[in-house]
Each structure stands twice: as structure tokens, then as C-alpha cells.
Write a structure and sequence with these properties.
The protein is built from 17 helices and 25 strands. It is of the alpha/beta class. A hairpin with a 2-residue loop joins strand 2 and strand 3. The longest helix is centred in the C-terminal third of the chain and has 34 residues. Bound molecules: fructose -6-phosphate.
Length: about 600
């Protein structure tokens, strides 16, 4: 949700910033801009549209300077336009600002400044930061640190900011609250960025800025201060991701590359999660006997992963699990206390609603566990205990590998809790662990054995205007993810239903030629979901059926309008890890056959850092 990059050093900042923006484009892509300070003069180029528009504009109007800031935008206040693009300059061009977040009191601040005669040029909330900084600079003077400290204390809401002053070409300032910002330590200069991939080709040494910390960044030094300008010491962290991991590596889309990486990242995640679950610090916090219930809260696909986890945890550990959308949980006065374990699932670790849900849970005394992909992110650092998914950088807006990694962490957690509560015996635990260990290979086999068939079948599905996904129990949870994946990248309307729920209203939407995707991975429920399939086929639907191989052939429906893919045998509780692969590939190829911009679907952005 908006990407920020900044550079100060001995090189020309412009190509560094533009390259960094390419790595951040997944955070927002409706406009982009760059500003540099060239020997005491600000030069800015800003363009509505994709980054290529900015690159074209920079060819026509080349700019350069050794200090600069850049931004790729996902509009919140003010339509996408050249003028509303960042960086924002103050009225007299003395301050330049890039912002990610929402300044909640911007109307009030803007009105005050306008009364004082300040002229605004955009409709954004962000411009108020530049104008306020210029106003304080004129009124109170002082260093750029003094000005930023004063400005930040006047702001309400969420912000990650990169700030430059025209008369100070040697200093770049960064500050954040509730939005991510890292500081990269380079050889020929230093960086600020919303996310690690933007700086990976220059450095693996970064500082994670905490809320309300200010970084004063020069060419060869970085200092940190509190909002009240007290100096603070911070430790540099070494990033383990490789620069090539955030490159497309010859694939047409990041989404395809990321789906194909799943066997490898699942293996790494399983190994890491097992280690984590045997560490004393984790064992103490996660002693399940202390808790009377578990609440899982998350957004989007991470919520869908939590939905799967609810079935697995309840089935194996026999402990009550509630699943809540983080955006609802945060405002509902939730019933959680010191006997509740609240699990936050998040790829980015920066989703505004999930962060707020975590803080709400903590304020009520609950213990919080973050299952997070991005190292050093807000949820990773603020939750009481964190287990990382080792999915590596996920660039495609639609999550695939991070979702799969979340599933295996949750399976291992369920086995651990079941074992600690003594509700399953040693032999079963061993068998379940072996089942989880086999997932990476089975995912590999699933991809290799189905990809060509799904690619061909998907080409036949691009004409549907609506597609329904059905499943029962855990397959219903997977249906939710299949439906979300399809609609976000293919723009085909879709809904997911529990199979038994269809006849309570939804079946009226089924007509001749509607496509229904049925997930049938549970042998016990196979006849039930097949009866739902019969019901929709009787009403003219075509069916794409994803079926367990653990049923008799005679139990399967044979019909010209039913296209079947069988999944490999796996414990039914872990079957989502295989059926979701088929659903991901299906969505991908439908969108690819429609010629859509798969990695950057319209209106969406990865890392939803605003409400
Ligand atoms: C869908 C998708 C989103 C995210 C959601 C939560 O493909 O990626 O629904 O799952 O925005 O994001 P994180 O996991 O970063 O909290």
C-alpha cells in the first residue's frame, strides 16, 4: 500500500530510486514519482499510471542528484493524477515528502494552514506534511530533525515518511508510525524503503525502524532519535533473502514463479517451524494448557489459511478455535483474556487491521502468536511469540506460497498442541508428522502432474461470468481461498459455499452453463458433496471436480459436463495443501488466458497498511 524508497550517497539517486520502485510496485501502482535535490534545487517528476509512464517522463525530463526520494502510490485521498502523485513539495519548494499511510487529522491541519495563507496544490492528505514542515521551518527554524520531530507530533493516523529539505542536501530523514520503513546501510550511500526487496541489490544490512523513531541519514552515517530527539542505539540486521529471490527469473509472472517455488519453501518452513516449536521461549509462551480457547484473526487469504487451521486444530487438539476477520475483531470488544491464545496470520506482518487486532488482544491480556513471513515486520516484532514462514519475498499481489507456508505452520502447531494436551498418542503423532513431512514432495508431484492439464482446461473457462466454489468442512475453507484467488486476478465473479448451504438460497443462481468448482478431498464426505454436484448438474451446471484418490471409481460421477482432477492420497486434514495448488494454477491460467496483468490486479495492492 504505497511504496517508498530514498537514497543519499555518492551516486545519482534517480536510477537507484526507479529500480527500487520496480521492486515496490506490488504495493501500489496507480501513479509514481521521484524528487531529487540537485545542488540546492528540488527537481521532481511525477506521473499518473504505471511506473513505465514515469520512466518515459524521466527520459523526456532527465533529473539527477545524490539525494532523492521516490514513491509508488495506491490512492486513498485524492484520485490518481500527476498532481496527487508523490513526492509532495511544499508551497515554496523547500521541503519534499513521500508518505505511506493516512494522516487522519489532515483536514484540520490543512484548514489551519490555509487560514495562515498556505496554498495547497493536491487533494491528498500527504501534502499537509510538506506544508506543515515548511511552516514550522519558517516559524521556528532549527535543523531538519527539529522540524520533523515537531511535524510528527502534530500528526494523527499512520505514516511512513521520507523527508528532504532544499537547503540541506546532506540529510534524508525517515520516520514511521504503523507503517513499515527500513533503513539500508550501503557502501556508496544509504537507503530508506518500505520493504526489503527494494534495497536487496545494494545491501543486506538493514535497520528496522520502530514506531515513532526518527532516522537521520547522511551519505556515510545513520543516527536514530526518539520523537523527542533523544538519541537511540539500534542494531543492524542481516537479511537472509537473496536478491535473485525478488527477480522474475525468466518466468512470465511472479505468481507462476512463486507457485512453482512451493515445494522448496514448504520444506524450509517445516524445518524452521519444528525448530521454533522446540525452543524454550516458544514452549513457555505456547503452553496450551494455560489457554481455554484459541482465536485466529487475519485478513484475506491469511484469514482463509486460519479457517483451514480452525478445522485442523479443533480436530486434532480438541480445543475451541474461533476465527475472526481482523477488521471485525478490532472493533467488536472481543471476548479474549489471559486464558486466550490469539494467533495473527500475516504474510507482510504489516496489515493495518491485523496489527490493530493484535494490539486489541494484547490490551485484553491475551498471549499473541504471529505467523508471519516478513522478518522484522510489525506483527513479527510486537507479537509475544513469532513463527516465521520461510516463503521468501512474495511479489505477486495474489498470495500463493505464503498461504501454503501458513498452512504447514498451523498443521505443526495443531500436532504440537494435540500432543501437549495428551489427546493423541505417540504413534498418531509420528504418523501426522510424517504426513506433514511428505507435503513438499506431494506438492511437487501435484504441480508437475496437473499443470499442463489445468492450463488447457482453464483456457475453456475464460468466458464464465460467475463461478461457484463448493466444499464441505475443511474443503469449504479451501473453497474460500480458491474463490478469492480466482476473482482477484481473473475479475470473474465468484462465490464460495459450504456444499450443504447451496440449497438454502444459492442454488437459484445456478443456471445452464454455470461453472461449479467442487472440492472433494474427504472420503467420508465424498457422497455428500457428490450429491451437491448432482444437484447443480441437474440444473445445467458444468463441474470442475477436485477429488481425493481414496474413493472407489464406482462412487465417482461420470458425466460429459464434469471435468475431474484427482489429488494424491494424503491425510484429509492436510489435503488443503494439495487442493489449493490446483485452485491456484486454475486461477492463474484463467487470468493468463484472459491476458490480464496477473501480478498487479486492478485496484489491489499487497500489504494493506491502511484501514
Ligand atoms: C490475496 C491476498 C490478500 C492478503 C491479505 C492479508 O491473495 O494476498 O487477501 O492475504 O491482504 O495480507 P497479509 O497476509 O500481508 O496480512
Amino acid at each position: 500500500m504505497c511504496g517508498i524508497i530514498g537514497y543519499i550517497g555518492s551516486k545519482n539517486a534517480v536510477p537507484i530510486i526507479v529500480n527500487g520502485l520496480k521492486k515496490l510496485e506490488y504495493r501500489g501502482y496507480d501513479s509514481a514519482g521521484v524528487a531529487v535535490n540537485n545542488n540546492g534545487e528540488f527537481c521532481a517528476v511525477k506521473k499518473r499510471g504505471r511506473l513505465t509512464e514515469l520512466e518515459q517522463a524521466l527520459k523526456k525530463t532527465p533529473i539527477k542528484g545524490n539525494i532523492g526520494i521516490g514513491h509508488t502510490r495506491w490512492a486513498t485521498h485524492g484520485e490518481p493524477s500527476d498532481i496527487n502523485s508523490h513526492p509532495h513539495l511544499s508551497e515554496f519548494n523547500t521541503i519534499a515528502v513521500v508518505h505511506n499511510g493516512i494522516i487522519e487529522n489532515y483536514k484540520e491541519l490543512k484548514a489551519k494552514l490555509e487560514k495562515l495563507g498556505v496554498k495547497f496544490s493536491s487533494q491528498t492528505d500527504s501534502e499537509v506534511v510538506a506544508q506543515l514542515a515548511e511552516y514550522y521551518k519558517t516559524k521556528f527554524g532549527g535543523s531538519l530533525l527539529d522540524i520533523v520531530s515537531r511535524v510528527a507530533q502534530a500528526l494523527e493516523g499512520s505514516f511512513a515518511l521520507g523527508i528532504m529539505a532544499k537547503d540541506n542536501p546532506n540529510t534524508l530523514i525517515a520516520i514511521k508510525k504503523d507503517n513499515p520503513l527500513i533503513i539500508g546501510v550501503g557502501k556508496d550511500g544509504n537507503f530508506i524503503a518500505s520493504d526489503v526487496p527494494a534495497v536487496l541489490e545494494h545491501t543486506k544490512s538493514v535497520y528496522y525502524l520502530a514506531d515513532k523513531e526518527i532516522a537521520v541519514i547522511k551519505k556515510d552515517s545513520i543516527e536514530f532519535f526518539t520523537l523527542e530527539k533523544e538519541p537511540i542505539n539500534k542494531e543492524v540486521s542481516l537479511i537472509e533473502w537473496d536478491a535473485s529471490e525478488s527477480e522474475k527469473g525468466g518466468y512470465q509472472h511472479f505468481m507462476l514463479k512463486e507457485m512453482l517455488e512451493q515445494p522448496k519453501i514448504l520444506q524450509a518452513t517445516i524445518k524452521h517451524a519444528k525448530q521454533r516449536l522446540s525452543q524454550k521461549e516458544v514452549l513457555d509462551k505456547l503452553d496450551i494448557k494455560q489457554y481455554t480457547k484459541i482465536v485466529i484473526t487475519a485478513c484475506g487469504s491469511a484469514y482463509n489459511a486460519g479457517f483451514v487451521a480452525k478445522y485442523v486444530l479443533e480436530d486434532l487438539a480438541r480445543i475451541p478455535v474461533e476465527i475472526e476477520l481482523a477488521s471485525e475483531f478490532r472493533y467488536k470488544n472481543p471476548i479474549v483474556d489471559d486464558k486466550t491464545l490469539v494467533i495473527l496470520i500475516s504474510q507482510s506482518g504489516e496489515t493495518a487491521d491485523t496489527i490493530a487486532a493484535m494490539r486489541e488482544a494484547k490490551s485484553k491480556g491475551a498471549t499473541t502468536l504471529g505467523v508471519v513471513n516478513v522478518v522484522g515486520s510489525c506483527i513479527a516484532t510486537e507479537s509475544d511469540v513469532c513463527i516465521y514462514t520461510l516463503a521468501g519475498p512474495e511479489i505477486a499481489v495474489a498470495t500463493t506460497k505464503a498461504y501454503s507456508a501458513q498452512l504447514v505452520v498451523m498443521y505443526l502447531l495443531a500436532i504440537k498442541f494435540a500432543s501437549d494436551l495428551g489427546v493423541i498418542d505417540e504413534k498418531t503423532i509420528k504418523a501426522l508428522e510424517n504426513d506433514v513431512n511428505s507435503i513438499p514432495d506431494l506438492v511437487d508431484v501435484t504441480i508437475k502432474s496437473t499443470i499442463d492439464t489445468i492450463a488447457k482446461y482453464s483456457a475453456l473457462c475464460i468466458g464464465y461470468s460467475s463461478i461457484f466454489f463448493i466444499g464441505r468442512n475443511i474443503d469449504y475453507a479451501v473453497a474460500l481461498e480458491g474463490s478469492l484467488k480466482l476473482k482477484e486476478i481473473s475479475y470473474i465473479h465468484s462465490e464460495a459455499y459450504a456444499g450443504g448451504e447451496l440449497k438454502h438460497g444459492t442454488i437459484s443462481l445456478i443456471e445452464d452453463g454455470t461453472l461449479v468448482v467442487a472440492i472433494a478431498s474427504n472420503p467420508r464426505l465424498f457422497p455428500k458433496i457428490m450429491s451437491n454436484v448432482e444437484q447443480v448438474m441437474t440444473r445445467g451446471a458444468k463441474v470442475f471436480s477436485i477429488e481425493t484418490s481414496l474413493v472407489n471409481e464406482s462412487d465417482r460421477i461420470q458425466h460429459k459436463d464434469l471435468f475431474r482432477i484427482k489429488t494424491h492420497s494424503i491425510n484429509e486434514l492436510f489435503s488443503p495443501s494439495l487442493s489449493v495448488i490446483i485452485l491456484q494454477l486454475f486461477s492463474y491460467f484463467v487470468a493468463a488466458n484472459k491476458g490480464l496483468d496477473i501480478d498487479k490486479p486492478r485496484n489491489l495492492a499487497k500489504s494493506v497498511t491502511v484501514e
